[in-house]
Amino acid sequence: MNESMDFLIWTKGTAFDIAVTIFVIGVILRLFEIISLGRKQSLAEAKGTEFGPGMKTIFSRSVPDLGTFRRQPLTVVTGYMFHIGLFVSLFLFVPHIELFRATFGFGWPGLPTPVVDAAAVLAIVGLLAGLWHRIMNPVMQKITTWEDWLVWALTFLPIITGYLAYHRMVNPYPVILGLHILSVEALMIAFPFTKLMHTFTVFLSRWYNGAMSGRRGVES
Amino acid sequence: MSEATLERGINALKEQIDAPVAAFFSSCVSCGMCAEACLFYTETGDPKYTPIYKLEPLRRVWESEYTLIGKVKKALGLHKPVTDEMLEEWQELLYDSCTMCARCSMICPVGNDIAYMIRKTREGMVASGNAPEGVKGASIRAVTIGSPMGVKLSALEAQIKHIEADSGLKIPMDVEGADYLALLSSMEIMNFPEYLEGLAKIFKQAGVSWTLCSTAFEATNSGIQIGSSDIARTLVQRIVDGAERLKVKNVISPECGHAYTAIRWEGPNLIGRPFPFRVVHILELLDELRAAGRIKTKGLETERHTFHDPCSLVRKGGVIDEPRRLMDMVTSNFVDMKDRGTLAWCCGGGGGVSSNEDADELRIKAFKKKRDQIAETGADVLVTACANCRLVIEEGLEEYNIEMPIVGLSEMIADHLVVDETPPETKK
Using the 8-state DSSP alphabet, how is residue B335 labeled? Predict the structure, then answer.
């Protein structure tokens, strides 16, 4: 029991500090790496504006075109399932919010645990279905790299260990909780250097797309 | 052009990478949705035609040169470099199977403008000597002769003579101080002279002061298609010089998709300064004349008509409502295709594909998309506003044994134009 407690304490202390540091510095560095490349201002007479259309595309790209959805519904459905499930489990689970409050000094209201529990299941099912789809779909086979498998595993581990810990399905409890925290730390450390960065860069890429189109009078 | 080498190619790719490219590659999660937006994938089912996969050379250069992890990988020898063999293999993916139609750019869930990056990657293909022969030939003819199809001024003058003799209309040439300079595509000069006749008729009636220019009549730009800013700049400069020599206030891009992209959006950036004139697409101008009441039409076509949106007009310039308002002037039975406007499907021959013989077979396969879309509308007549789309569609329909008239929209307006005996004074 003592050893498992020591493990838990280490994951909550030293390991957590290291992971958060790498995550924060890494993300800032990566965003700087991208934005500092800059882009040339277009000299062509504008037909529309950039900022507004860019902001609009940030939201509008969350909704797929119907024809494309019909061609590949599983990508969209599994994508929605695990993104929503992850978001709810991560940000609206009361113990997580308490952790934010303890770390940053502020928090927000959470959802009742049965709702969060359902969201976790949604995320797990979505991720598993997404994995199956990635294995079976010829297009995905063609473009999938080792990094895609890695980020899948890094995303799946925190949610599955969190689920097991919450339901006390592994004994002793401190071990599974420690593994849960450790898996989140692995996710945070890998985050800035992998496709997990899309969490932040998606706002940039959608904005650039919308803005460059908007300037030409195109709704994208 | 300097000698093409792999090193030059990689350097060209490096130079092309900017913040949007870095953001796009950082955001791609390999979801594969872009494949579903691409007619070269949907009509063949071959996953190598997945749009983001076509960008692998550019992605590799971005990763190894502009990311921390890529630099580490390179130092450790874990990086997959771009090689001559790779670029040779990618020629088919970057040229034969991509028209830069940008439909994938509209679909990508993380917002990647894939066509923007294809255009950039082609710069590296040219610099490394990996552009297809057919497109190279067109570019060389464009620079040396003045037109990708080898059409010279004498050929245009011969067509002008014919048109003037047949119609009794005057085609003005090199008129200094005209309001509008009209450009043409080689295909319009050789295959569809009715466009030029239509312009002359409409402009006479609307009292538009216009001219052609003997040193700048060709609007198409092979440099944009092959991916050579040097060639593209030379061709744009010709138009700018012509327009400035004649001191025109506006330049009209003809019924040609990529010519519009070239002169309207890339042009000023290529020559490094804003234009002292406005660039307008012929459909935008016709719609302005319609709105101002300067052109009126009579009689409505009763057969069912549909309209093919040229990709460059809708996804590069937002010219979507103009053709529909113009169609309404002359048809009573207009039906849009299911995916229209910014989601219209390409004819499969843009972006240099139609001048690339290597792509002929694939292009016919990919054309099934357009064929089915047209069939779905039950239309008797197809209207479009791009001479290249028009030829590609004509050829495609013929290949599939479908008979259907294809008409240019400007020409259709000209056919229905109300012509007064005494046209109004030339309005400024």
Answer: -
User: How many whole angstroms separate alpha carbon B70 and alpha carbon B52?
Assistant: 19
- Our measurement of the distance from residue B67's CA atom to the centroid of its chain's CA atoms, rounded to an integer in Å, reads 34
- Check if A205 contacts B (Cβ < 8 Å): yes
Which pLDDT band holds residue B425 (cuts at 50, 70, 90)? low
| Contacts A47 to B, Cβ<8 Å | 317-318
Q: Is the pLDDT of residue A114 over 50?
A: yes
Could you tell me if B260 and B309 lie in one domain? no
Q: What is the ipTM of this complex?
A: 0.96
Whether the bond into B51 is cis, omega within 30 of 0? no
B106: tokens are 């509209």
Q: Which tens digit of pLDDT belongs to each residue from B391-407?
A: 999 999 999 999 999 99
* Calpha distance B32→B37 (Å, rounded): 10
CB within 8 Å: B31 and A79? yes
Question: B102 and B72 in one domain?
Answer: yes
Q: Are B197 and B412 in contact (CB under 8 A)?
A: no
Query: Could you give the CA distance from residue B113 to residue A53 in angstroms, rounded to a whole number?
Result: 14
The Cα–Cα gap between A2 and A62 comes to 47
Q: Is the pLDDT of residue B70 over 50?
A: yes
Query: Domain coordinates of chain A in residue numbers?
Result: 2-31+47-215
The answer on B371 and B261 residing in a single domain is no
pLDDT tens, A174-191?
999 999 999 999 999 999
pLDDT at B2: 64
* pLDDT tens for each residue of B363-387: 999 999 999 999 999 999 999 999 9
Identify whether B424 is part of a domain: no
CATH value at residue B285: 3.40.50
Once rounded to an integer, what is the mean pLDDT over residues B179-198? 94
Residues of A in contact with B113 (CB under 8 A): 208-209, 212-213
Q: Quick one: A2-31+47-215 is in which CATH superfamily?
A: Transmembrane di-heme cytochromes, Chain C (1.20.950.20)
Are residues B65 and B17 in contact, defined by beta-carbon separation less than 8 angstroms? yes
Residue B257 included in any domain: yes
Tokens matching residue B214 = 């003997």
Asked if pLDDT for residue A103 goes beyond 90, the answer is no
Mutate to test the interface with A, among B73, B106, B123, B264 (most CBs of A within 10 A): B106
Q: How far is B273 from chain A (nearest CA, A)?
A: 6
